[in-house]
Amino acid sequence: MIINNSYPNLINEVLCPKITEPARVIDLFAGCGGLSLGFEAAGYETIGYEFEENAVNTYNKNLKGRCYLQKLEVGFDYPEADIVIGGPPCQPFSVFGNQKGMEDARDGFPIFIDAIKRVQPKVFMFENVRNLAYSHRWYFDLIRKSLVDLGYFIDFKCVNAVNYGVPQNRERMIVVGHKSSFRFPKIQFEKVTVGEAIGDLIDTVIDESKILTPRMDEYISAYEKKSSCVNPRDLYTDRPARTLTCRNLAGCTSDMQRVRLKDGRRRRLVVREAARLQSFPDWFEFTGTETKQYNQIGNAVPPLMAYKIALQIKETYSLPVASPDEMKSKKVALSLFD
Fold first, then answer.
1. pTM flag (> 0.85)
2. CA 258 to chain centre
3. Catalytic-labelled residue, pool 90, 158, 229, 252
4. CB within 8 A of 86, min separation 6: which ones?
């Protein structure tokens, strides 16, 4: 088994909140603060809004900024801010959901667009599921047009968190709106593995309640045989993890995230292991029941990826705003490219 403490040390040291920048960040649909943690580590003061109470408590327990328990609506009165970030609810667009898109009451994009209109930040960014740019591309185009009409250049890219130092294959759409220029972070070709992330925990964490019973093993084997799965969907220490979700962390399902112990038994991940695979530092404490904690982790933007995006936004924020003629010419170019 590979055990390398450089990754835990990295996230514990780099992802520490500190306020060094004059700009203020508003985080919409903030969850437990994964996105905000990345921005605070880059030096920004954050203000969060979230409607799930345990996530709000986690945010306020760990970050320097303040998160408010608030169900956002179109027309909400926001404080002044220079940067707006967020993760509008992705269930309407996830391949695991009903994919109702804008017909789903959980669609957060009308709220996000309204916030940009009201706050008029210099830069904004949002994260969402990859599927938004595929099965729901028509709706994504409407979102982009609405934001371009508010006076922004739009850059977007489907990224994989594993390319930004996170030990997990997690594909997401990142969209950045600005009035100058933006470059996505450089890809990190050397991938961090499960062993490097949690190798020191796998055989030392004792929680008998997480050990899979013989009946669970039989159920998983039957599922994998029926689905023609060549290799068991365990986590392997020599490669990154598959995508962490609320469902495969909190639920005892055939798809649950699990590790194999030295004695051959398998067990579900504990909260601290799941947090590390999402790049949360060891000092970051989650609140609420165990299921609530798993849900907070599964819903979060990996803080290490958020940090690297925040550094790039910092460069964008410092650039001069384009002139009206430059804005107009680039908008025309974008429409031709599309």
1. yes
2. 21
3. 90
4. 26, 27, 28, 29, 30, 35, 108, 112, 115, 126, 127
